[in-house]
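Colleagues,

Please find the record for the two-part complex below.
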Amino acid sequence: MSSHHLDARGQKCPLPVIALARLAADLPAGSRIEVLADDPAARADIPAWCRLKGHTVSQTDVGEHTAYLVVVGQAPRKSTGGA
Amino acid sequence: MAAVADPDFQRAVLDAAPGPMHPAARETFLAALDAGWADPRRLHSEGRRAAALLDTARSVLAAGLDARPDEVTLHPTGSHALLAGLRGIRQARRRVGATIVTTAVDQALVLREPDVDAVGVDSEGRLDLVALRERLAAPHVALCVLAAANQEIGTRQPIADALAASAAAGVPLLVDLAASWGRSPLPPRPDAYAADASSVGGPPLGVLAVRPGTRVKRQPVSTPERGLEPAPPFVPLALAAAEAWRQQEADREVEDRATSALIDRIRAAAAALPDVQVVGSATDRLPHVATFSVLYVDGETLVHELDRRGFAVASGSACTADTLEPSHVLAAIGAVTHGNVRITLPTSAVAPHRAQDVDRFCTVLPDAVSTVRAQLGTDRL
């Protein structure tokens, strides 16, 4: 499956999530995206967004930033509310 | 914005934490500025009158917490009352240990204390009872501190079960009523309650009620508020708080049903929008609190857009609070933290147009959200 990179270091929330959503929108299920972000809010936000959209995510702290590995899921991308 | 030019336009305060004062409490406050301005410790007539008024206020506030007047101390705010109780009980139990067991969604001021053991919560913010029982059984636990309901997302905690668990472990339980006092039935009486009169449309005033037999480290007897505060409260604030409580208690059941229905409408209006996450329990919650996160917008821009359209709302997103970090509550339940909007409805006495305000809010929300998304270029995501 295809592999993609997104360097969102220096960007404040919600910009990393917006960039990730743009990238993931056109990718088939199973695609892998490596995201780098250093905004503290992204630590909660990227995993929360992935859960909501049915993507899987794992994260590793790398010095000043965090590396996220997102695997695009099969679930419908459009959500209409509900926790 | 057309609404701003409308002569009938009025601001809708959907952030009552704290909100405007109840009109009766305001009247009481103004009258008390003349009658009760003196230091209640003074021996002259004015001082004795202030002391008598303070006794009256204390009796009313104590009854509101199922307590006797001599079990109740008054503090500048609910946060002060909570910390006074937490630190007083912890110090009295220092031979046992210093650990405070709480949850990951309790107030930041609790989580910032040293030696905190925070139990996890589920996606609605409800604490894990099994984990709580385990943590309470650990050695060196000084006390357990739990909010009866979360002030950001509204979810209630199983306080009766937590009280049984803490009693079984021999650990005192301090229940934080910050958002719930007067808005929700009192949970069974724990070792201590901390409350704030601003939750009932009063001025900010902290109330701590400690059950007889619960040990609290206090300063020498001459120190005000039973050794827990450096000064007595300003008596007019205490009287206004007591009046607000009395008014709210008389209206509570009607208010509970009315606010709960309005919150259901706000939750439904938010959930109907694309890419909006409604947060917290839909049913086991405070009647007057709603929170949702709008994906792909920042909380600050959304709060400003709603403000421009006449609505005062709060937000748990980063850059909208007192820190650059997003709400620890949203993070702990795994919710999206950006684009967050938090509604705390005022009482109907404070906001007589509350139902119309909520109607207008639900009508305006879709357009406010698409306006902000269009500005940020995220409307087609």
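Confidence is low (pLDDT under 50) at residues 79-83 of chain A.

Comments are welcome before we finalize the supplementary table.
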